[in-house]
Amino acid sequence: MKGFAMRKIGSTGWVEKERPQCGPLDAICRPLALAPCTSDIHTVWAGAIGDRKDMILGHEAVGEVVEVGALVKDFKPGDRVIITAITPDWSTLEAQGGFPMHSGGMLSGWKFSNFKDGVFAEYFHVNDADGNLAHLPEGMDLGAATMLADMVPTGLHGAELADITFGDNVAVIGIGPVGLMAVAGAALRGAAQIYAVGSRKNCADLALEFGATRIVNYREGDIVEQILDLTRGQGVDKVIVAGGDNNTFTQALKILKPGGIIGNVNYLGEGESVPISRLDWGCGMGHKQIRGGLMPGGRLRAEKLARLVTAGRIHPEKLITHTFHGLENVEPALMLMKDKPRDLIKPLVILD
């Protein structure tokens, strides 16, 4: 089979590999729709997880099952499925302890294009199929379904990590596709004011549609000053960090009230450390929590999020701004994520 791969740090290309083998609990799928992610960019061009040689990229897919292992109960060849970007080993102690995304070690639930070949291929392997596949609801838009692999669960996990409750005032820093779903998650959880930090007009417009009450444009001034001015110096109850860099936490701490929580779902792909301002953290005693987490993944979460789509509670298909057709167009779609033109939110590749 062929797949689009990271050849080494800073280099990508097409490779030929053997079709993956199916274990007794596993499945082999072929993709129906794919989406490149900023994480792929960090992986290849920043070397965020170290060097990888000829590793097939991609972790966002909707697919069709072509083979299942002898012990798989709930899926069969021909089933159309959502494949979660995070595919834990559900029998591990970490999963039993409530942290399936770290099954087998920190971040080890993230297998695609990290520890094994990803989904940008003619076929791909899914471990623990009964736990990591979800049936694609009939009639669901393929773009919306593909966003359920990563963008939706990651964005909503930001709202979970920040523990947003009714009436909280919230800042969402970064309104790319994950941040936009974090805005939607904050609104679903009952936030009052939602200050969405970003500068692109299409992202700002969609943030307002998803529930933001105010756009804070970092090109128009320091976001700390803007948010403190909007809150009359009080700051916000919760912050979701879905963009920026290692220094963003300094800004997040400055706008966070004592007793508040920062929920981070931003992938920090570069640098050795994250600076934390001692004074803004209350000299370590300000009761300002920082929670960073990889989204849980798995079938149950995907099925529940699919219910939100079918019920009309969220509209992830609106994240799609560029659509390509054919596996060969994974490469230009990925380059869009690398170059980030102003009109881009998320590209989608449909396999005809």
From TrEMBL:
Coiled-coil blocks: none
Cofactor(s) the protein needs: Zn(2+)
Pfam families (UniProt xref): ADH_N, ADH_zinc_N
Tree of life domain: Bacteria
Alphabetic keyword roster: Metal-binding, Oxidoreductase, Zinc
SUPFAM superfamilies listed in its UniProt record: GroES-like, NAD(P)-binding Rossmann-fold domains
Domain Enoyl reductase (ER): 7-350
Keyword Metal-binding: yes
Molecular function GO terms recorded: oxidoreductase activity; zinc ion binding
Family: Belongs to the zinc-containing alcohol dehydrogenase family.
PANTHER family: NADP-DEPENDENT ISOPROPANOL DEHYDROGENASE, ZINC-TYPE ALCOHOL DEHYDROGENASE-LIKE
Record's protein name: NAD(P)-dependent alcohol dehydrogenase
Organism: Candidatus Faecousia excrementigallinarum
